[in-house]
Give the backbone structure.
Amino acid sequence: MTLLPTGAHPVPVDVSLVPELSGLFAPTTAERDIGPLEVVGELPPELDGTYLRNGPNPRFTPIGSYTYPLDGDGMIHAVRIDDGRVSYSNRFVETPALRAEERAGHALWSGLMTMYRPDATEVGAGLAGTRKDLPDINVVRHAGRTLALAEAAPPFALSPELATLGRETFGGALPAGITAHPKIDPRTGELLVFCYGIEAPFLTWSVVGPDGTIRRTPTVVDGVERPTMIHDMAITDRFVVLVVAPYYFDIAAAMSGGSLLTWRPEDGTRIALVPRDGSPTRWLATDAFWCWHLANAFDDGPAPGGAGGAGPGPDGAVVVDYVQWDRPGTDDPADEQHAMLVRARLDLGRGTVVRTPAHDRRVEFPRIDDRVLGRRHDRVATIATRPDDPQLADTLVVTDLAGGHDAHWRAPELALGEPVHLPRPGDPDPGHGWWATLAVDRREDVSWFLVLPADDPAAGPVARVRIPVRVPLGLHGVWLPSNR
Ligand SMILES: [Fe+2]
């Protein structure tokens, strides 16, 4: 954490020294509406809806520091498919802090790793001393609300035209905010969320009903004694699943110029199974690993009879699929650690965690067909990074965890983003439909919305929608069929 002398002002960062501010990541300041777009190939006629994707996109040169992927203003990119016509739009998430910066014509809030907040002379009494909202990580729609999501902070609601409507606190019930990765239970329509805090309580979970009203106000997850960073979650019919790795906030160290976050592998990683009925949390411990993203989890029956007659307990097991890192990731190509897709089986009776890698590819951004979130699933889509650049992914990998094989499609001329599943309307089979991703062309300043058949991803895209501008590489997105 960078400390500034009293009265000092953070200076602009050297963009050339920050990989996530240049090249394919370089932010765009333009807000555009472009269409109709050229389609190479043939869009499936059943596809009708909107793909939304969020990502950090600082409006002005950051001051003090820039920490990807947390810092940066949110920008939502939309690809709309309407009766075969395709268009593209993008808009900033207009937070009060961003509006103040737009009035000033430059950045006023420093990056997270610089200890600085603007005073009233810079931003007025209403915003003086505040933290900047950073709804730049994900976007979801629930109960008619489209939400741009931040890490452990209130999201911002958006109109269908991507106008920012304001901070969403769910009627004041969730003032501290929610995770960037809430989960919608397709069975109940509930939105399940968690939020970690720097101060006690360090971890809570909540439930928003399908009508958008609060069903469970923030409820403490017992057993978390330190402020701990947790990025994602999963759900099953019975549990909220939280991977609690030993990655702690250390405010005392930060206040003296040290690191805000500290990795303590000796503590191991614990997995919290929080019963959705409100009964006490079940904790399972294993060796330390870090996890940015989970693909899914589901309740499973007891394991087949164990060796030595140690039969499974009556509570069965929970299966959790996620991308496993040795430790919190760095973007340093010299960092040899491998991010792997892993299936973990948590036996509640024995209290054991058995982790099995699916393959040896270096992958991230795991997604499934969201219609089976929380229930048994087989296929997980990820993107695999290039050996020469761990920040660029050029391969879509769809892994069948039941069948033990994967299908992949490689496009070395592109940098692929997170995959999303596009269901075929009326067809409940996750193995059908399509996988889509927003890719940046490495040869020229254009981007592509790619649509690949889910039953044969290795065949490559059936349609490539050409977006005649570069959409900066970003983070998470969602497909919203037009009938929702
Ligand atoms: Fe994420």
